[in-house]
Design brief:
The protein is built from 15 helices and 16 strands. It has helices spanning about 65-75, 175-195, 230-250, 295-305, 310-320, 325-330, 335-345, 350-370, 380-390, 395-410, 415-420, 430-440, 445-450, 460-470, 475-485, and strands at about 5-10, 10-25, 85, 85-90, 100-105, 115, 130-140, 145, 155, 165-170, 205-215, 225-230, 260-265, 270-275, 285, 295. The radius of gyration is 30 Å and the shape is elongated. It is an enzyme of class 6 (ligase).
């Protein structure tokens, strides 16, 4: 992998990147209340008395939220802390009815882990390990709505109290590509595990991007934090802009200020939001309403046993079946794709042939239709049947394409389409020999040229024969018989 460098006016600069990812936990209830968490509900319709901070209301931890965070930690080989504690992070803001956020500063639920990423999609075997410092569980704040009234802002508390996992990386990334690969890999793992839906557009997964620059080999520079970036592409663009901005500031004689910034996706720039607070500015202290979390072995074993096959293990299994590393990477990148492909294999498809077909034919068709694989008009069992008809010689490659197009339009099975439309490939040597004789008789000039040494005309005769037989002749048989006929 080539090293990423910023070319400044006074030389080269390295970029140091860390990500703090907020992932909304998949749960039907909030972290400390029974209120619903569905996206898109009418404002303030999913708010309990606890979420609204009514006097005398006490939080009760949601077991499922803790379980999902522990499972996520296990999926990234992280240390699970059997004893953890909740803290109050005190600050005033209009969308924070309690005046504090319940979080975990000093004793998080999950300790150190790691992710192995492949920053270069063309070279998936070139990996880099990114450390994860911790995962802690915390409640989300509400949301201010500034576009509902000309002079007032409204508060929607539907998100207030929603369970978040804050997944904090080490500053181990050194390029926008590495940060993008890390975020994609983390999102894939969360979706495989089922602990977060990873829907960045809806805000259920978002990243705070920490960036600093330095001369090669020097001490870490002052970092800025760009808040709540909600797509992989925007994270990469924010890093690109912010790193260049910092280099320009330093080379211009200024100094980088530790601050919180926002990314403007329309202009592709970051802008200052507020000076960066330190932890002591929040006045953290243990939450007096919540006992420490103590996890027993039975709970941990249940979490461990519930984990699915994860992307790296699945990719290794696919490669062991003879699937190319590139195809294996494509097929395991999204959990829906991997599940669909596993169903295709279970239906009896040959792994390498199936991987090539899914990566080219199926993905191509779904892209044209604007659909994801979960909405494919062709089921895995139907696809397996189509591939078996190619494997046993019933269909040629070109006929299989025709059958597949009909399947997409009608949802019919391949066998029914072949029977109904007479698309079966023929290997009848007598019929093919008769067509070849007719083709040669109709093209005496090309025949003389071929026999005079113009070997490239062999393809012409193959094409004419296939055309005359409506594409239904077995190409291998056509080739063999033509060689004999042409001498």
């Amino acid at each position: 992998m080539s090293e990423y460098r910023i070319q400044g006016a006074t030389g080269e600069w390295e970029v140091v990147i860390g990500l703090e990812v907020h992932a909304q936990v998949t749960s039907e209830a909030k972290l400390f209340s029974g209120a619903a968490t569905a996206f898109g509900a009418e404002p303030n319709t999913q708010v309990s008395l606890v979420d609204a901070a009514m006097p005398g209301m006490l939080p009760v931890p949601n077991r499922e939220c803790i379980r999902q965070a522990v499972r996520t930690g296990m999926a990234i080989d992280a240390a699970i802390n059997r004893w953890s504690r909740f803290d109050r992070k005190n600050y005033f803001y209009a969308d924070l009815p309690q005046g504090y956020q319940i979080s975990q500063l000093y004793h998080p639920l999950v300790g150190e882990g790691h992710l192995d990423i492949s920053p270069d999609e063309k070279n998936p075997d070139a990996t880099k390990r990114i450390g994860v410092e911790r995962i802690h569980v915390e409640q989300d704040a509400g949301k201010l709505m500034h576009d509902q009234h000309p002079t007032r802002s409204y508060v929607d508390l539907n998100r207030s109290g929603v369970a978040l996992m804050e997944i904090v990386s080490r500053p181990d990334m050194a390029s926008p590509a590495e940060a993008g690969a890390y975020l994609r890999k983390l999102r894939a793992i969360l979706r495989y595990v089922g602990s977060c839906d990873g829907n960045m557009e809806e805000g259920s997964m978002r990243a705070d991007v920490n960036v600093s620059v330095r001369r090669a080999g020097e001490e870490l520079g002052t970092r800025t934090e760009t808040k709540n970036v909600n797509s992989v592409r925007f994270v990469m663009a924010a890093i690109e802009h912010e790193a260049n901005r910092q280099v320009d500031v330093i080379e211009g004689g200024g100094r980088v200020v530790q601050e919180t910034r926002l990314f403007d996706p329309d202009k592709g720039v970051t802008r200052s939001m507020r000076s960066k607070e330190d932890a002591h500015d929040y006045r953290y202290f243990p939450d007096p309403d919540l006992l420490p979390l103590e996890l027993d072995e039975a709970f941990l074993e249940d979490c461990r046993a519930s984990l699915p096959e994860l992307p790296d293990a699945k990719r290794a299994r696919y490669e062991g079946m003879g699937i190319t590393p590139y195809n294996a990477g494509v097929l395991t990148a999204e959990v829906e794709t991997a599940r669909w492909f596993d169903a295709l294999l279970e239906a009896g498809a040959a792994p390498a042939q199936a991987a090539n077909w899914v990566s080219s034919e199926l993905f191509g068709a779904l892209n044209r239709m604007g659909k994801g694989i979960e909405d494919s008009p062709v089921a895995p069992a139907q696809a397996a049947e189509l591939l078996s008809l190619v494997a046993d010689g019933t269909l040629s490659g070109s006929l299989a394409k025709q059958v597949f197009e009909v399947m997409l339009d009608t949802g019919q099975s391949p066998a029914a389409i072949v029977e109904e439309r007479g698309l079966k490939q023929t290997s009848d040597t007598g019929a093919i020999e008769a067509v070849i004789a007719d083709v040669l008789a109709k093209n005496p000039g090309q025949l003389d040229q071929y026999r005079g040494g113009k070997q490239a005309l062999f393809g012409f005769f193959v094409g004419q024969t296939m055309k005359a037989m409506g594409g239904k002749a077995n190409p291998a048989v056509v080739n063999d018989l033509l060689k004999k006929a042409l001498g």
